[in-house]
């Protein structure tokens, strides 16, 4: 019954995202960022700055152009309280350094409107809706979840992390994690057991928010770089 309720909630919800003109890219990537109550404004800013720095990195930009279409589509999603609509930048198709810079600048100044509980499942569910609702086609789709805590929400009328993980697996969408272990020392183990999903998925760690930027850069390289054996997605 709980799984049925979760799927009904997902079906009834409208995607909160921008769209781009129909286009084929090598990867659809949602960067799902934690803005729950355990994340103060400084830590939120460090996450956004870390992502922006990643898209300004020369090796990441080369990775973006490493596949057959030499492009990716990316969308920043900010999540926290389960009943609050998630904030998104909308989809950016990146084919050049200038477009990578445009996305980086948008992320670096993205306002914070989220707080409250750590609803990882609802964040992932919103990311799946964003992927389902865009006009982009890609062989690979990835949800990149970063956060500093375990899920902490009531079970009623909420898509829980296990349910969202099952939804991603059913769509052939990979979930990777970046566990920020400043408060929960074994958070990476929690992410591996409960968040990570799909072939060649992985979890990386940052000791603290000051380490986030380098961890994100390495994570983006691993996610974006084209590898032929990963260039498929069941639909």
What does this protein structure show overall?
With 235 residues, the protein is an alpha/beta fold. The chain has a single domain (2-17, 29-228), classed as Rossmann fold. It is 39% helix and 20% strand. The protein has eight helices and seven strands; from the N terminus they run αβααβββααβαβαβα. Strands 1, 2, 3, 4, 5, 6 and 7 form a seven-stranded mixed β-sheet that branches. α2 runs antiparallel to α4, α2 (41-56) packs across α8 (212-224) and α5 packs parallel to α6 (161-171). It starts with a helix and ends in an 11-residue tail after the last helix.
Descriptors:
235 residues; alpha/beta; Rossmann fold; 7-stranded mixed sheet; 8 helices; 20% strand; globular; disordered N terminus; DUF1194 domain-containing protein
């Amino acid at each position: 019954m709980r799984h049925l309720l979760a799927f009904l909630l997902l079906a009834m919800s409208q995607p909160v995202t921008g769209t781009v003109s129909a286009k084929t890219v090598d990867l659809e990537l949602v960067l799902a960022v934690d803005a729950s109550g355990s994340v103060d404004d400084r830590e939120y800013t460090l996450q956004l700055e870390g992502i922006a720095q990643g898209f300004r990195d020369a090796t990441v930009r080369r990775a973006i152009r490493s596949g057959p279409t030499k492009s990716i589509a990316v969308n920043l999603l900010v999540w926290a309280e389960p009943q609050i609509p998630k904030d998104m930048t909308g989809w950016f198709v990146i084919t050049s350094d200038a477009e990578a810079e445009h996305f980086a600048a948008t992320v670096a100044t993205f306002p914070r409107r989220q707080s409250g509980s750590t609803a990882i499942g609802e964040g992932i569910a919103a990311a799946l809706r964003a992927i389902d609702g865009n006009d982009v086609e890609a062989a690979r789709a990835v949800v990149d979840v970063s956060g500093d805590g375990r899920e902490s929400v009531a079970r009623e009328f909420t898509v829980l992390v296990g349910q969202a993980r099952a939804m991603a697996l059913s769509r052939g969408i990979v979930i990777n994690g970046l566990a920020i272990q400043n408060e929960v020392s074994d958070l990476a183990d929690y992410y591996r057991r409960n968040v990570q999903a799909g072939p060649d998925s992985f979890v990386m760690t940052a000791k603290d928010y000051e380490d986030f930027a380098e961890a994100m850069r390495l994570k983006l390289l691993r996610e974006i770089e084209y590898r032929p054996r990963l260039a498929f997605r069941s639909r």
